[in-house]
Amino acid sequence: MQAGKSLSPLLTDLYEMTMAAAYYRREMCSPATFSLFVREYPSHRGYLVSAGLEHVLDYLEAFQFDQKDLGYLKDTGLFPGEFLDYLETIRFTGNVHAIPEGRLFFKDEPVLEITAPIIEAQLLESFVINVINLQVSIATKASRCVHAAQGRNLIDFSLRRTQGMDAGLKVARASYLAGFGGTSNVLGGKAYGIPISGTMAHSFITSFEEEIVAFRAFAETFPDNTVLLIDTYDTIAGAKKAAEVGKEMERRGYSLKGVRLDSGDMAQLSKDVRKVLTDCGLESVKIFASGAFDEYKITDVLQKGAEIDAFGIGTKMGVSADAPYTDMAYKLVQYGNRPVLKLSTGKKTLVSKKQVFRTRTDTRIIQDSIALREEEMEGEPLLKPVMEKGERTDPQEPLATMRQRFSEEFALLDDCYKALKDPDEFPVKLGPELKKLQEKVVRKVIKKELGES
Fold it and tell me: What is the phi/psi pair of residue 162, to 5°?
């Protein structure tokens, strides 16, 4: 789904436009490199998952101001006519290097770098951060749920409480990339080729005179995919009725697929429900649980011995409730041939075009090094050229490929970095040439801007 193709370049902050106008007036058109990175980890995170790149590339391919955009800008009275004439002709002509979706990255590492004439590159800032920030946040949160579930299936149930329609779609995509088994979001399933999954709401049960009648109605409609919600009135009583319907299905040559818990003491109830099902000879029926789950609640119920086979994960994953954003920045690191940086307290940046090298063994990843783009270092270079002169270097990648890439790399990350609370910090160092250039530019800036030697 090429969501970016329907979006206007006006999806940006005003200061991107005013800076672009000033660049144009001063005839500043040299290539500029902007680096996208996360300054600090969100709470209790020890890694991040790359996600959202495909939507950025879609947007760059289609980047163009139409007549309605230009008419609106003219009506604001803010911009000179010759600048608006220039915007009518502008397209993205630059290069993009990025860490592929599904790979892990760490703070300070560029997940993406864009090199283009400075007006083009500047106008992209707000959109790029918006797209990548959301999907990185969600993919990282979802991956923690996957880790906590210890191989149990997880389904995205978050659509109704995500922050808007677009976020609902992106959450379905990012959570599937990070290991979820499917989504309840039907449009998300269609758009991204994700398996769709769902059961019923309590309204379905209460619309019938009796709970068991509701169960029978659903089983008759979906005999090959019957999962019954059993907590509307009393979970154990509901389980017994579900078991009765399950036996009726067996006599017709079908099988009850599962029951769903949505409230109460999930650990104890799952054990009690499992006993009801086992006593009725329905050992193969799965117990599915939903209701305010995330990695913390999953861990809690499993530590208490819950007999839950799969989870529906909704609100807390869909908004990454405990860490709803990353401290992501898109900063100029080179203009023309001049490396540049910020020295602001707590917001210092690394100069120049960069590469990230990852060293590993057959069984684990060991260390990353942030280096200059042309620097030679031990390890695998993570940033790949994905767009040159405004065109993709490769066809759009299937989401299934990204998902497999994540699964393989996540398995190589030591559990100490995956810890749900106070994880260890993965070792990331600077390459010697980058470190040398960084120190040189810092000295130069301090001398020039602060008058210090």
Answer: -70, 165
Q: Which amino acid is at 108?
A: D
Spell out where 39-178 has E strands: 48-49, 95-98, 104-105, 112-117, 153-156
- Strands of 264-422, DSSP E: 286-290, 310-313, 328-335, 338-339, 354-360, 365-372, 380-381, 384-388, 391-392
Q: Which CATH number is 40's domain given?
A: 3.20.140.10
Q: Does residue 179 lie in a domain region? A: no
What CATH number does residue 271 fall under? Answer: 3.20.20.70
On whether both 330 and 434 belong to a single domain, the answer is yes
The domain in which residue 362 lies consists of 3-138+323-450
Whether 235 and 335 map to the same domain: the answer is no
Number of domains in the chain: 2
Residue 153 lies in a domain: no
Whether 285 and 341 share a structural domain: no
DSSP state of 262: -
Please identify, among 239, 268, 290, the residue that sits at the C-terminal boundary of a domain: 290
CA nearest to 318, candidates 106, 135, 133: 135
Written as tens digits, the pLDDT of the chain (453 aa) is: 344 446 899 999 999 999 999 999 999 999 999 999 999 999 999 999 999 999 999 999 999 999 999 999 999 999 999 999 999 999 999 999 999 999 999 999 999 999 999 999 999 999 999 999 999 999 999 999 999 999 999 999 999 999 999 999 999 999 999 999 999 999 999 999 999 999 999 999 999 999 999 999 999 999 999 999 999 999 999 999 999 999 999 999 999 999 999 999 999 999 999 999 999 999 999 999 999 999 999 999 999 999 999 999 999 999 999 999 999 999 999 999 999 999 999 899 999 999 999 999 999 999 999 999 999 999 999 999 999 999 999 999 999 999 999 999 999 999 999 999 999 999 999 999 999 999 999 999 999 998 876
State the DSSP H helix or E strand holding residue 70, giving kind and residue range, or none if neither.
Answer: helix 67-76
Please indicate, yes or no, whether residues 371 and 444 belong to a single structural domain of this protein. Answer: yes
Token digits of residue 239: 């389980």
pTM, full prediction: 0.96
Residue 23 included in any domain: yes
